[in-house]
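Much of what follows relies on a compact textual record of a protein's fold. A record is reproduced here so that you can trace the correspondence yourselves:
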Amino acid sequence: MRSLTEIRATTPKSTIFRGQIQHAMIAALLTIGTCSLLRDNGGSFLGVTTITWAYITIAIGLIHQSIVAVVFRLQLHFDVMVRLFGDRALKIWAAIFLPLLGARPLLLVIVGISDYGSLGGNRSIQLVAGAVLILLVAYTMHSVLKYFTINRALGGDHFYDEYLNMPMVNQGAFKFSDNAMYTFVFTGLWGIGLLLGSWNALVLALFYHAYIWVHMYCTEDPDMRILYKS
């Protein structure tokens, strides 16, 4: 069985920054590119313009994933969360992580409502495609809850040995992708944009989906190489 204590003892502390320069640089480029694609169509929601909501949406994504990168690395290398909070560490992390995660689709809905119909094109096709993507998300989330568990999705393998030593999941949506959460769940953001026929919501869905893969390759994949190396 693998032990986080042993892994920490044998892992150079310098690797705590691995991938994070790339993370920052790509995040900056994605932010600039996304802002350049946004369209000011004069819409608003609760007195706040669509563009302002879009900037808030981008900021939440950047804040969320930056916090995840910091917490994952501090926990992996120094056991910070468990040292501070003991058996409550994952619950406290969930209280930080989940509201930020939930804010993403909520903000996309707000942008989509304030920007409704700006996409143009065939609404019937958009509604069908959006509904299919939302159904895909529902199926994947069922698989996450039933087979993978929320604690593992929160990065439980950075916190406790019991999650580190769980077997790989190949049931449900995980039969089709080892990383079903990033591959399929984030398509639901595209579904929101299509259902609301919103150009700006789709642009932000592209930002979120691209940025989660930046997290995967710059933060999570290097961590997995440390945690699961033979």
